[in-house]
Design goal:
Blueprint lengths: L2 H8 L9 E3 L2 E3 L3 E3 L15 H9 L5 E8 L16 H16 L4 E6 L17 E2 L8 E4 L2 E4 L4 E2 L5 H17 L4 E5 L5 H6 L14 H4 L1 H14 L4 E5 L13 H12 L6 E5 L13 H8 L3 E4 L4 H9 L5 E4 L1 H5 L3 H7 L27 H6 L1
Parallel strand pairs: 3-4, 3-14, 4-5, 5-10, 6-9, 10-11, 11-12, 12-13, 13-14
Antiparallel strand pairs: 1-2, 7-8
Bound molecules: 2-Phenylacrylic acid.
Length: 375
């Protein structure tokens, strides 16, 4: 094939609009909205009309994965994140899922426990945040009183771990009641499940620490509980093997995460979602994400700084089934259509990412009618 023809096929967005199977769902396109913490659900963590509008605007995504959502009061690690543990939160989310479904979309709830990334001022009874081990991360917590140094967390007792698993299970029950199409278990970015996975933050000597199998045990128990509720075809997992965000590290990410992917494979989950590389922009160890994907042997969602061209290349080259976009979806509610037309993109405005009102949230423009016909 002449070189210019290869170039043409490489930049052809049609591959992004081939329907793709993701667990029990068939997605109409390969352009997924990544989970994005936006801190606009109020102190009680109840999604309201503004949140409904934001998600409804983005219903053309192949799949929306919501912002990380607290499975329990103890799980919270930031101001104004939503929860899925109270009746009011379930009802708030129900309005979101109804709006997205009415607009023709699909939506998974991302569920998390932030572990040591929380702060006593965000915890019930001003308690210490919990973690696998009493190891203080470097850095600062985001609190209602501004940034405050992370504290040394309290190591979970072995007999408290079933309670963590039960809270994830209850979150899945509540997610189903709220009308979600499924859930994504947040095991990435230095939060509780990732704290257990990595040997830098897990120094336990019980059944939940030591070997990779033992460090993965909590995640496997959580995945087992959540799939019992929803079925494996409605459950995905997000991992970030190379991310150092939240002061997390592992002495052997390639070995640990390859082993983990193989442990997850038999569950038959809907997908594995991987933050490739380091969100902080730091260059660190290499990892062969292709091998991770092979070991998991199911649909793979790639994420971290992809643009249109790289997404087309990854999907056309069979390196991923789907690509998740964060900042670009935040700033472009009609991102799939813009990719289809190779239209210009709105620029994400960092100052309004976290907290605030509709500015920088629901006011990013859609393509104009004129732009649509011109493209
Ligand atoms: C809060 C603020 C910025 C990023 C996540 C990485 O939710 C995050 C994040 C959370 O996983």
């Amino acid at each position: 094939m002449p070189k210019d023809q290869i170039e043409t096929s490489r930049s052809d967005a049609a591959v992004l609009f081939r329907p793709g199977r993701l667990g029990d769902l068939t997605l109409p396109n390969r352009v997924i909205m990544a989970p994005l913490t936006r801190n606009r659900a109020g102190r009680d963590g109840v999604p309201g009309p503004l949140n409904v509008a934001y998600y409804r605007q983005r219903a053309s995504a192949g799949l929306i994965i919501t912002e990380a959502t607290d499975i329990s009061p103890q799980a919270r690690g930031y101001p104004d994140t939503p929860g899925i543990h109270s009746q009011a939160q379930v009802e708030g989310w129900r309005r979101v899922t109804e709006a997205v479904h009415a607009a023709g979309g699909r939506i998974f709830l991302q569920i998390w426990h932030t572990g040591r990334i929380s702060h006593p001022s965000l915890q019930p009874g001003e308690a210490l945040p919990v973690a696998p081990s009493a190891l203080r991360p470097a850095g600062e917590a985001v609190t209602y009183e501004g940034l405050q140094p992370f504290v040394t967390p309290r190591a979970l007792e072995t007999d408290e771990i079933p309670g963590i698993v039960a809270a994830f299970r209850k979150a899945a029950v509540n997610a189903e009641a709220a009308g979600f199409d499924g859930v994504e278990i947040h095991a990435a970015n230095g939060y509780l499940l990732d704290q257990f996975l990595r040997d830098g933050s897990n120094h336990r000597d019980d059944a939940y620490g030591g070997s990779v199998e033992k460090r993965a045990r909590l995640l496997l128990e959580v995945a087992g509980a959540v799939t019992e509720v929803l079925g494996a075809g409605r459950v995905g997992i997000r991992l970030s093997p190379l991310n150092s965000f939240n002061d997390i590290r592992d002495s052997d990410p390639q070995g640990s995460f390859l082993k983990l992917a193989a442990l997850l494979a038999p569950l038959g989950l809907a997908y594995l979602h991987v933050v490739e590389g380091d969100m902080t922009g730091q260059e660190n160890a290499e990892l062969d994400h292709g091998r991770l994907r092979e070991a998991f042997a199911g649909p793979y969602i790639a994420n971290n700084g992809y643009d249109r061209a790289r997404a087309i290349e990854a999907i056309a080259g069979s390196q991923a089934e789907f690509v998740a976009f964060g900042a670009l979806f935040l700033a472009n509610p009609d991102l799939p259509e813009r990719f289809r037309r190779d239209a210009p993109l709105n620029t994400p405005i960092r100052e309004t990412f976290y907290g605030g009102d509709g500015r920088g949230y629901t006011d990013y423009p859609f393509l104009e009618e004129g732009a649509l016909s011109a493209a």
